[in-house]
Amino acid sequence: MDAHRHARRIGLHPAIEPFRTGMLDVGEGHTLYYEECGRPDGVPAVALHGGPGGGAAAAMRRFFDPDRYRVIVFDQRGCGRSRPFAETRANDTERLVGDLERLRAALGVDRWLVFGGSWGATLGLAYARRCPEHVLGLILRGVFTCSRLELDWFYRHGANMLFPDAWERLTDRLSATERDDIVRAYHDRVMIDDIRARRADTMEWARWESALISLDPSRSQDAPDPRRSDALARIETHYFLNRGFLERDGVLLEDTRHLQDIPGVIVQGRYDMVTPPRTAWALSKAWPGARLEIVPDAGHAAGEPGVIDALVRATDAFARRLD
Predict the structure, then answer these.
(1) Domain range holding 291?
(2) Which of 243, 258, 288 lies at the terminal end of a domain, its last residue?
């Protein structure tokens, strides 16, 4: 079965090319790549990629009906087609939220649907907290709030109990002292200037996440792309070492008053090993206006069939509400 037929079988909307692309200067030496596709007069929606540092993929457009939506996709600071690449200077959550506002204003959008998974969900929640008046709704997948509990699960004690083989590969290259703080150890290693000298470490950092991302073994065994891995490792360790640059641990789950008037859908894989369902569950309890859908046969990846189905149903339903 070819890729297009497979995508249609599991519910993705048809592929469509952007009607506009551009570069937005956001200051401090950073320029962001963005693209728009679908209907220029459609419901505005911004899709936030994961990582941080993962970059936007063309598949992100396909969760939206191009006959109903004006889909805006962009690469956050330091990754994808944005410049400078793999840069962590002047790169934090407050600045990313500011970038969203600059992009919204530059494109003449008043309010938009905010769609994001994993780190994209973190950024979506942070943006909604700062700018609720510009949010039509939130569709979040694999909810992550960059808390100590979540980071410890993935990089200290939790996921390693289920994936000891992948964990051994991640940690074998580290000294006994470095293993006391995996995030700091990798941060120090991948921040060296020589891209060739840091490549083995950036690849291992990305490979750990890839090993746990999906219930489909073939997806979990894919070798990470070296260029993407470089930005991912540098920017993730930069953010995770600083707990997402949030003002206090757990704030995105504690401060949810602004969400009360925002409709939302939370899509969560039952067997998500990267961002376990506990966070999505806690968010749903703090946000009565949101509908939580736990996909019983899915992990973390956005491309798993049950997750695709839930996300496409969510965007389709939201568009119908505005018809």
Answers:
(1) 18-147+245-322
(2) 243
